[in-house]
# Entry
Amino acid sequence: MSADPDKMDLPSRSELFDFHGVPMIHYFTDNWENVQNFQARPDDILIATYPKAGTTWVSYILDLLYFGQTAPERQTSIPIYERVPFLESIKSAEETGVDQVNNLPTSPRLIKTHLPIQFVPKSFWEQNCRIVYVARNAKDNVVSYFHFERMTLTQPDPGDWSSYLHRFKEGKIVFGPWYDHVNGWWKKKQTYSNLHYMFFEDMVEDTGREIEKLCRFLGLSPSVEEKKQITSGVQFDNMKKNNMTNYSTVPVMDFKVSPFMRKGKVGDWKRHFTVAQSEEFDEDYKKKMKDPTLQFRTVV
Ligand code: PPS
# Structure
């Protein structure tokens, strides 16, 4: 422990280790048996993403669609990460993500996960739960993840941008390779019809249209007025101002380093990648992303 009183309470950064072939940190593996044995209910809705692909955005949309009218007080009193608990996380020694989900009073329960497809608890499949997967183009995803690791003091130290980019390509970051994640879930969609696969870029392009599609998938028919309200409430600037959606209540995040609601754009990668980095990335990308049916946009 540090003898410097200013540093005494700083959380320590986690070490990555190999967990069944995927780089992970103990925050997401120490409750593994309970995660794997999690009992899903048929009306549970799982929101699955690779980290930084738009989880919070879609979580907030779903929460508003289900509970915006019936329980408006949630919107001003409960942070989004409590309304939509993170299944595999360990919030504290006393409370895990699994406990949080099990204590949810709502129906349906909205549940967040970053697990790659092979780690998803089997009861979600057995119960034929609806799943919303959000994917984001690799270049913006890695930029967002880099800044997130800089500001989240319990994540592994990201190091400098160019070494982080190298590790991303190698898949040596928490939850493993982006490439395997987006492809694994995409493949699952071919055989599991209760999976709605969305793209961050489509949401930026036309949030209202994507909410319409979500509603069709979920069998919801909100009024025109309600849809208008939701579309406006979930715009980046509104979520950034909203203390219940901007993560400002999380002590291990240092917003002086970078805010959680950082840019919310498609194409911010251009301010980070050099031309050489972009070309090398594209070369490597082509080798890893062989399925022509899965296409991402890096500009909109
Ligand atoms: S986490 O930690 O994995 O749950 O993060 P996640 O919510 O998946 O991703 C955070 C990024 O999503 C952006 N975001 C949005 N962009 C546009 N509009 C809205 N409403 C919105 N809400 C969240 C957020 O800003 C992070 O992306 P970057 O590129 O870092 O800004």
